[in-house]
Specification:
Number of strands: 2
Order of helices and strands: HHHEE
Number of helices: 3
Shape: globular
Length: 70
């Protein structure tokens, strides 16, 4: 799930957690859990505020496959 979230954020840095849940077909609470996990792992971060901010992916595409073993 985390890899799919990162991929979606790469495609659209302004995507919301609600849009992620809809796009991935999972519950919004599941998205929130994984987004928090990715932030703690320093894979992603939020720039700007909650309304007009965007997601920044801090890891290279080749490093994305390592997410599941972190």
């Amino acid at each position: 799930i985390e890899i799919r979230i990162v991929d979606a954020m790469r495609e659209n840095s302004k995507i919301t957690q609600r849009q992620l849940a809809t796009r991935l077909g999972i519950d919004i609470n599941t998205v929130k859990y994984h987004v928090r996990s990715l932030c703690k792992k320093s894979v992603i971060e939020r720039k700007g505020n909650n309304r007009s901010g965007e997601w920044v992916v801090l890891i290279t595409q080749s490093g994305v496959s390592d997410i599941s073993i972190m």
